[in-house]
UniProtKB/TrEMBL annotation:
Pfam families: MoCoBD_2 (PF20256). InterPro entries: Ald_Oxase/xanthine_DH-like, AldOxase/xan_DH_MoCoBD2, AldOxase/xan_DH_Mopterin-bd_sf, FAD-bd_PCMH, FAD-bd_PCMH-like_sf, FAD-bd_PCMH_sub1. This is FAD-binding PCMH-type domain-containing protein. PANTHER family: XANTHINE DEHYDROGENASE (PTHR11908), XANTHINE DEHYDROGENASE SUBUNIT D-RELATED (PTHR11908:SF157). It comes from the Bacteria. Residues 1-177 form the FAD-binding PCMH-type domain. Keywords: Oxidoreductase.
Length: 273
């Protein structure tokens, strides 16, 4: 498909005579365009934006009515053919029809730099993820027992290409449960004399099950990362990091002890450690 761009009315008539199937298009302030692109895929599109003082063009099924003077340019934005004034003329898919389009793009991540040794801040990584957790717990300081009642999460995922996966077990909720396990259950016990692991199986190494999993409300934020393809951010790692300190902070607030290690064991709450 080609564009014809006549400079004046005479050239437009000559182009239409030479290419009778050409479909006229135009745009600008106060312009009404009536083109049925679903009818066919035209071989030529005739851009009439440079034709001044054109009041009406009507040939067969094609009809374009313009104001007294037209100076708009045609642009491609968001898969649509639009004028420089923002008026949508047609979907690009309708204009192209069944013609296949191949696009090759190259993307490079933003440059990184060393962290500031004094503040620890800087762009030392290609991308950053953001997640926050509030936790609600019930604690029995006499028995040293803890139950996590709710562990909500708000996370900026950039763009959720697969919302069900982002929300479900393998991402936000899954990472949250991992952090829960680190906070109150999971621990590798090593014999200080033999250096052997005392709990080498899942019989003794405790993992959270569905019975240990609290309610996990999730607020997914999609604040696109301008430096990443499709605006994506990492999803699964961040909730596994922020959920652990959230649980410990809630237990500390409810019971009083400083709790400077994980997992929190009964003796840490009863004062018998």
């Amino acid at each position: 498909m080609d564009f014809l761009r006549p400079a004046d009315w005479e050239e437009a008539l000559a182009a239409k005579a030479e290419h009778p199937t050409a479909v006229p298009i135009a745009g600008g302030t106060g312009v009404m365009v009536e083109i049925n692109f679903d009818r066919r895929r035209p071989e030529y599109l005739m851009d009439l934006n440079r034709v001044g003082d054109l009041l009406e063009w009507e040939v067969g099924e094609d009809s374009v009515r313009l104001g007294a003077s037209v100076t708009a340019e045609l642009l491609l934005e968001g898969g649509k053919v639009v004028t420089d004034g923002g008026e949508v003329l047609a979907d690009l898919a309708d204009v192209l029809g069944d013609e296949a389009i191949e696009v090759e793009e190259e993307w490079r991540h933003r440059p990184t730099e060393p962290f500031d040794r004094r503040t620890g801040q800087g762009n030392g990584h290609v991308q950053y993820s953001f997640a926050a957790h509030p936790a609600v717990v019930e604690a029995d300081t006499g028995l040293g027992l803890v139950k996590v009642v709710e562990l909500a999460c708000a996370q900026d995922v950039g763009k959720a290409l697969n919302p069900l996966s982002v929300l479900g077990q393998i991402q936000i909720q899954g990472g949250t449960v991992q952090g829960l396990g680190i906070a109150v259950m999971e621990e590798i016990v090593v014999d200080p004399e033999t250096a052997k692991v005392r709990n080498p199986s899942f019989t003794d190494y405790l993992l959270p099950t569905i019975l240990d999993t609290p309610t996990i409300p999730v607020d997914v934020l999609e604040l696109a990362d301008d430096h990443a393809p499709y605006g994506l951010r990492g999803v699964g790692e961040a909730p596994a990091l922020s959920s652990t300190p959230a649980v410990l902070a809630a237990i500390r607030d409810a019971t009083g002890p400083a709790l400077d290690r994980t997992p929190v064991r009964p003796e840490h709450l009863t004062g018998t450690a």
